[in-house]
Amino acid sequence: MQPAPDAFRTPKGTNDVLPPESGRWAALIAAFASRAGRFGYGLVMTPAYEHIEVFHRLGEGTDVVRKEMFEFEDKGGRKLALRPEGTAPVVRAYVQHRPTAPWKVWYLSPHFRHENPQAGRYRQHHQLGAEVLGVDDPALDVEVISLAHGFFRSIGLSRFRLAINSLGDAQCRPGYLDALRSYLRAHAGELCEDSRSRLEANPLRVLDCKVPGCVEVTERAPQLLEHLCADCKSHFEAVQAGLDAIGVEHEIAPRLVRGLDYYTRTTFEFASEALESAQNALGGGGRYDKLAEDMGGPPSPGIGFGIGIERVLIACDAENVLPTPVPYVDAYVVDAVGPEVGAEVAALLAELRETGLSADRAYGGRSLRAQTKSADRAGARYVVLFGRAEMEKGAVAVRDMESGEQVEVPRSRVMAWLHEHLGKTHRDGAR
Ligand code: HAM
After folding, report:
1. Positive or negative CA dihedral for 269, 270, 273, 276?
2. In which element (H, E) is residue 49 found?
């Protein structure tokens, strides 16, 4: 059978990430990992797929579950789904392993949603996320939000806004939903079909609808913040005060409900002002104080966020920050002699790498010219040249690729020489 014409291309809505662009991914991930580590979060890794029941906890009425899940059956007939988001698997892992609370974890994972692909919206996207289970202290909400906020700042982004809201809890939300439902029923004729169909079962979703008619109606709708019970109100006030105290600017967005059903109390979203509004959410999250119980675990409040790496990179482009790293190696070994020095070339290269320098070489017996070109392309700081004349004196030539100067260095001294000269300027390879 002939393969389809596009069989050997990435499936719709997915992307390859290749060097040097992947260098930006590496930089983002390293910045997040180091920041999360400083905040006391450990890396968690869960499978790329779970039993489908795990994701049903996101809400049977959400788009993610209703329309976008990649579902399949294993050979034993168990229904599984590729992870559309990171919170439910982490909570499943918490319930399964019962680690000591508070459990503070971070993750980097691919996520799968069957969406209509467009710039900033893909069928496979990647999130950097953090979750904490076992604490309902508002000071933790502040920590989690500031973990994300400072990460955006640390990579150079400045044109983004933080919106926060409270969705209340089992005490106060039902009363609010009744009030919202009656209001929406009275305006049903002005709502889009989708919103009308959601009005009874999930009126909060209507607040999220971007259709202009619905926006007009919901702008005048009763607000949850006015219906919060005393506990939720004081929790939300403490979160705001905590953010103020550490200088994290935020605005209150009474209609921020987010697209997943597990949220309680604090919700938040970071939106880039440099991107088009349909795809401007860089990341978001909130509390999910009932999710662990919903999965059969002990009562364990939780909070976290997910940051879309692809979106962040688009925002970085728009703000002209986090450029693609320029290729760099400390030393590039060039062989102008041939196979008889092969072992020596390999030994020097190994020594350079094992002693902490970045080093590379060309392969396949290429000409001196071609090797020098490769050294240039690799961003070599120094070229170590095995030339016949130098070899006869037990030496190699070392060329400074910035100044163009070349010196002869005894073979036995070349490691020390390079370490000495790179002492201040040596940096990690950027490829
Ligand atoms: P989410 O808002 O669905 O939340 O996704 C988080 C972020 O992932 C979004 O703000 C966006 O940057 C990115 N994202 C989502 N879908 C796509 C897509 N199709 N293409 C590209 N980027 C996308 C969650 O997933 C929650 N698990 C966040 C959370 C963690 N809440 C509590 N803890």
Report:
1. negative
2. strand 49-51
Q: What's the pLDDT score for residue 423?
A: 84
Residue 269 · residue 252 · CB < 8 Å: no
The contacts of residue 24 (CB under 8 Å, 6+ apart) are 313, 316, 322, 323, 324, 325
Distance 212 CA to ligand 1 centre (A): 24
pLDDT band at 201 (very low <50, low <70, confident <90, very high): confident
- Return phi, psi of residue 407, to 5°: -130, 160
What's residue 13's pLDDT? 98
Pocket flag, ligand 1, residue 287 (CB < 6 Å):
no
How far is Cα 21 from Cα 31, in angstroms, rounded to an integer? 16
Question: Could you tell me which residues come within 8 angstroms of residue 402 by beta carbon, excluding any fewer than 6 positions away?
Answer: 381
Spell out the domains of the chain, with CATH numbers in brackets.
21-172+228-319 (3.30.930.10), 329-430 (3.40.50.800)
Pocket test for ligand 1, best of 70, 104, 125 (most atoms within 8 A of CB): 125
What is the residue-averaged pLDDT of the chain? 95
* CB-based contacts of 386, cutoff 8 Å, min separation 6: 333, 334, 335, 336, 337, 341, 344, 345, 396
pLDDT tens sequence across 135-173: 999 999 999 999 999 999 999 999 999 999 999 999 999
338 Cβ neighbours under 8 A, 6+ residues apart: 365
Nearest ligand 1 atom to alpha carbon 283: 10
Mean of the pLDDT values across residues 187-208? Answer: 90
What's the whole-model pTM score? Answer: 0.94
Q: How far apart are the CA of 47 and the centre of ligand 1, in A?
A: 18
pLDDT (0 to 100) of residue 202:
86
> Quick one: pLDDT at residue 428?
55
Is there an atom of ligand 1 within 6 Å of 310 CB?
Answer: yes
Per the structure block, which two tokens stand in for 134? 């076992």
